[in-house]
Amino acid sequence: MKYTTQKVAYWFFLSALGLLALQIVYGFIMGFAHMGMDGLHDFIPFNTARAVHTNLLVCWLLLGFMGSAYYIIPEESQNELYSPKLAYIQLISFLAVGVTAVIAYHFNWWEGRKFLEIPRPLDYLVVVNVLAFLFNILMTLFKGKRQTTTALVLTMGLLFSALLYLPGMIWFDSQTLDSFYRWYVVHLWVEGVWELIMGGILAFLLIKITGVDREVIEKWLYVIVGLTFLSGILGTGHHFYYIGAPSYWLWIGGIFSALEPLAFLAMALFALNMYRKGEKKHPNKTALNWTLGAAITSFVGAGLLGAAHTLPNVNLYTHGTLVTAMHGHMAFWGAYAMIVLAIIAYAMPNLTGRKLFNNGISQYAFWLSNIGMIGMTVAFGVAGVAQVYLERILGVDFMETQKEIEPHFLVLVLCASGFTTGVTLYIINFFKFGKPTNEALVAAS
Amino acid sequence: MLTKSQAKIFFLAGTIIFSVLFLGLSYDTHVNKHDDQTNADKITPEVVAGKHLWEANNCMGCHTIFGEGAYYAPELTKVIERRGAPYVKGVLMSPTPWGEHTSGRKMVAYGFSEEEANNLISYFEWIGKVDLNGFPAKPKYEIKKTK
Ligand code: HEM
Ligand code: HEM
Ligand SMILES: [Fe+2]
Q1: A113, A179, A227, A324: which to mutate for ligand 1, most atoms within 8 A of CB?
Q2: Within this chain, do residues B3 and B72 fall inside the same structural domain, yes or no?
Q3: What CATH number is given to the structural domain containing B83?
Q4: Checking CA distances to A422, which of A38, A141, A312, B95 falls within 20 to 30 Å?
């Protein structure tokens, strides 16, 4: 809390929240389309809305991770950021690429591969951008007074994310190989290296908020990320069941992906135990809520709801249905959205000097968004299970099934409204803090 | 009790061992098994042209193929078997949004040329014959609509 260059994090957080708001708008467009109200079809067809929704999600989470690194790495390595100027250039260029891609999707310019829709020329710009970011972080770490485990795990997660982006850029004539290597990016990100990023941020927050000894926290951090790779790497096989890959992936993917919840369970137990052990004196209860909330919700959304359809005999029926969307929402929310919102809630008072720790707004923001997300997950889940029974087991036609499950999307949109109210309150609260100041950062030390 | 350096070894060893295993299995899938299981010799220039169209228009943003994509429009892995090529061609070449008057859910009116439509059909024909380990499962029942 003594490094004035930490304030670049504020601008990353601000941009991340802006993109989150826009992501939600496109979520509503799809929610209504599923209800049979696709009045925007001529301007924003479903595939545009979907590409925007999921790409903005990835963009704002990456901005959140970068902001977290710019906040955490100076403090952990006890050194000013190597180049704040590079960080600002990198932020602006990242936003420029993201916004260009989002506009491009409205004009049928994309690469129609789920989650990797960014047009190829823009991919190269993303790579340059991320290299600039990594250079800045690595130099800061390298020149710092110390290299902590927390900082190393976080940096390793970011570095591997960049490397794993590359297999997704290779062209294959075969849809099977295309899909096979697409999972090197998508699966090995969310069920592999992003868990390192989450673990790193979580460890940092627990050290700061609970006051438990760093050695203890970092020991468990190693155990958690060890469990992640032990299960998650071969767990990639759960996406290879039905795409034209050999059948040995059915049991390899089944066994190892069934172990993946262990890493999330470990994360939840770890956070709760550290909280119990800690001194409970830290005034920032909002940050504590989001931190423990992330650890618990990620276990439910990623661990339990992922395991629910990961065995090959279940996945044969649920593969590519709304059951997947149910899991996708709560997993992304619990693990990655909430950890980013946790670090923002922790950093804002330190960056701005305003001690708005726990007001009504921040409480409502937390509870409304989470209850709303639970409701959305249930709505997707009910729609998905009904779809599986009607379409996959009884053999009702796809479109007829969709007509039958339309009412669940009304419930989805209602719960999404509660969720959106919570997120809006979070953003209002963010603005109440005002801008970061050097005085605040110096005083906090 | 576990020490921090033991925990670190657990992490590093696990990561290395499982990465190596995963890369080895990926190699086996790609190099030894892929061509047979997917009839890779049947990937003609028309199939490839169809795949380019599939991606350039982000069809996966509404449909699924091999169960991957979006949940707004039908699974297309077995579409030729289910509907027949002439029907699919009609959808692809339609100048007005398909589905507008039937299901209510509209498809983008691409109005593909005859050649483009044929390429996409070749692509679907290749897709439909890939050995997918049993996906999509045959429904257990056959039910009739009463109204
Ligand atoms: C934070 C971690 C996770 C996130 C963000 C996440 C997110 C997602 C998303 C977005 C999809 C849809 C992917 C697509 O079809 O393109 C998906 C699919 C899937 N996930 Fe996860 N997931 C996480 C963890 C897990 C875990 C731990 C498990 C297993 C225990 C799991 C099991 C599955 C399975 C089986 C599918 C395939 C569904 C299908 O066949 O359609 N996920 N996940
Ligand atoms: C107002 C709130 C939201 C609504 C109404 C909404 C609605 C939707 C809908 C209708 C889909 C498309 C499913 C399909 O292909 O048919 C979707 C996809 C997706 N959304 Fe949301 N969403 C919202 C917020 C969020 C949030 C906050 C997150 C992440 C934290 C998120 C993550 C995703 C993901 C990962 C997918 C792809 C899922 C998959 O392919 O399985 N959404 N959303
Ligand atoms: Fe996965």
Answers
A1: A324
A2: no
A3: 1.10.760.10
A4: A38
Residue A268 near residue A296, CB atoms below 8 Å? yes
For residues A61 and A341, give the distance between their C-alpha atoms in angstroms, rounded to a whole number: 10
Contact B120, B112 (CB under 8 A): yes
The DSSP line for B88-117 is HHHHHH-SS-TTTTTTSPPPP-----HHHH
CB proximity list for A391: less than 8 A, separation 6 or greater: A321, A397, A398, A401, B139
C-beta of A91 in contact with ligand 2 (< 6 A) = no
Q: Is the ipTM of this complex over 0.95?
A: yes
On whether the CB atoms of residues A305 and A332 are closer than 8 A, the answer is: no
Protein residue with its CA nearest to atom 18 in ligand 1: A324
- Cβ atoms of A296 and A349 within 8 Å: the answer is no
User: Which residue has the least CA distance to atom 33 on ligand 1?
Assistant: A306
Ion ligand 3 — residues with CB < 5 Å: A 187, 191
**Interface test mutation site (partner A, options B2, B3, B4, max chain A beta carbons within 10 A):** B4
One domain for residues B63 and B24: no
CA atoms of A13 and A65, how far apart (whole Å): 9
DSSP for B24-75?
HHHHIIIIIIHHHHHTGGG--HHHHHHHHHHHHTTGGGT-EETTEE-SSS-B
Kindly state whether residue B147 falls inside one of the protein's structural domains: no
Task: Looking at the structure, tell me whether residues B74 and B22 fall in a common domain.
Answer: no
CA of A316 to the centre of ligand 3 (A): 15
Q: Splitting chain A (445 residues) into consecutive groups of 10 residues, what average pLDDT does each group show?
A: 89 98 98 94 96 98 98 96 97 97 97 96 94 97 95 97 95 98 98 97 97 95 97 98 98 98 97 92 95 98 98 98 98 98 97 90 97 98 98 95 97 98 98 92 72
**Residue A290 burial class via C-beta count within 10 angstroms: exposed 0-12, middle 13-18, buried 19 and up:** buried
Q: Please tell me the CATH code under which domain A4-444 is placed.
A: 1.20.210.10
Nearest to A326 by CA among A383, A250, A253: A383
Q: Does B106 touch chain A (CB under 8 A)?
A: yes
Ramachandran class of B63: left when φ > 0, alpha when ψ lies in -120 to 50, beta otherwise: beta
**Domain segments of chain A as ranges:** 4-444
Q: On the CB side of A70, how many CA atoms lie within 13 Å of its CA?
A: 30
- Predicted confidence (pLDDT) per residue in A203-244, tens digit: 999 999 999 999 999 999 999 999 999 999 999 999 999 999
Helix (H) or strand (E) holding A105: helix A84-105
pTM: 0.97
Q: Side chain identity at A328, as an amino acid letter?
A: G
For ligand 1, is residue A267 a contact (CB within 6 Å)?
A: no
